[in-house]
Amino acid sequence: MTLARTWSVGLAGVSGEMVEVEVDMSAGVPGVVLVGLPDAVVRQSVDRVRAAVVNTGASWPMRRITIGLSPAAMPKQGSGFDLALAAAVLAAAGTLPADSADGLVLLGELGLDGSVRAVRGVLPAVLAAARAGHATVVVPAGNAEEAALVDGVEVLAARTLGDLVGHLSGRHRLPAHRRGPLPPPAPAPDLGDVVGQVAGRRAVEVAAAGGHHLFLTGPPGAGKTMLAERLPGLLPVLDERAALEVTAIHSVAGTLPPGAPLLSRPPFEAPHHTATMAALVGGGSGAIRPGALCRAHRGVLFLDEAPEFPRATLDTLRQPLERGQVTISRAAGSATFPCRAQLVLAANPCPCASAAGDAACTCSPLERRRYRSRLSGPLLDRIDLRVELPPVTRAAWMGAGAAPEPTAAVAARVSAARGAAAARLAGTGLLVNSQVPGRLLRERWPVPRPALALAERALDRGLLSVRGLDRVLRVSWTLADLAGRTVPDGDDVAEALGMRLQRVAA
Prior knowledge:
InterPro entries: AAA+_ATPase, CHLI-like, Mg_chelat-rel, Mg_chelat-rel_C, Mg_chelatse_chII-like_cat_dom, P-loop_NTPase, Ribosomal_Su5_D2-typ_SF, Ribsml_uS5_D2-typ_fold_subgr. Pfam families: ChlI, Mg_chelatase, Mg_chelatase_C. By secondary structure, the protein is of the alpha/beta class. The protein folds into 2 domains: about 5-170, Ribosomal Protein S5, domain 2, CATH 3.30.230.10; about 190-425, Rossmann fold, CATH 3.40.50.300. The chain is built from 20 helices and 18 strands. It has helices spanning about 40-55, 80-95, 120-130, 145, 160-170, 200-210, 225-235, 240-255, 275-280, 290-295, 310-315, 320-325, 365-370, 375-380, 395, 405-425, 440-445, 455-460, 465-485, 490-500, and strands at about 5-10, 15-25, 30-35, 65-70, 105, 110, 115, 135-140, 155-160, 215, 270, 280-285, 290, 300-305, 325-330, 335-340, 340-345, 385-390. α1 (about 40-55) packs across α2 (about 80-95) and α6 packs parallel to α7. It is elongated and about 85 Å long. The model has no long low-confidence stretch (mean pLDDT about 90).
């Protein structure tokens, strides 16, 4: 037979699409023609596959070989098609039974020595294969644990091309890889390590309970970074669907930690202030990769020294934060990534960043004003909670007073508050208070009018926008959930308003 076919998967973002790999052998000048919008890496796969086949002990067919990747209109990127190309070529050449690879989905890069190397994006590729009804996938041994996370699919792990050839020829069978026990997640930093900062600890608890964005400002050493790093530990452990979603993003990005195929804890991303727009949101040349915002999906994106980021880079976050997803377009196609993350900004109060606070500041009013203006108003308007942290006092540092609550105690309150919100929002598709649209908030869950007196005065005086008032109401509901109340009262609205209007840079 001179025609053979098998299957692989092409990725666009975290969405996979089945790719049929067809190989036809014909008379003519020996050579290889590869069609179907391959990128440079896929075109180079012909040389890798040829060397791997020869070094495995098989012979490369000296005929005219036409390789088609369908659908032809879909761009094909990456080295994950190597294994499928090799199997289809050998089947078309008669080295393997003609239909031996027909129903298989093959993923993996080939080394010149015939070894099968791990590739990015195996989890979303196997998920796509399962949705398409394929029952068996062959993956590199290094990706087997990741692929085995998908239920209903038999995962075969290949270490070399020779292993696959032996399996397809019937000489031996590749063993099915079974999903092993997941390692326990690494312990999260404890909130009890934070010295003092009662207001900061309260803000982090409220942010965790309602999914609110947070802006922390204060002098160096006040604990801004420590508080941000402890926020993921207060969030609930991801359920299986969410964990697969987060793991798929990190699989495409190539940032899965070794030995931990499933990410069950909310992720924490903290890019440096020199990060480019593509590094923060996503992009890059060739295959489109998720940025820090996407990798923080269902977790926390922490931007330390926020005013040092280019203003245009920060402003690219505005629309993705509102929509919960980002679409990156290129001439050859586009990719969509989910990015429903909590944003935490941290900043010093002024350029000199005196550890003693305002009393020792050497900046002029103009310098302080310019420093504050690096964060645009529309971005700040999307931040629900704004907290100014004072310098840590000697008494707090020496341990005077009651010991701070540990993460476990605060996380229990957060879990109870999220449970109350979930019960209230049941049937809406919403999970936390920060996601509730303003119209739905006012019509379905109105706050009693007497409790809104302070907020209405702030709106009349121009201290709040209408969107800002909606955000105050969302935080009020979170405070009520934390307190175990069924409806926010005046104290909840006052506290939410204080967190909204608190001075964030002097």
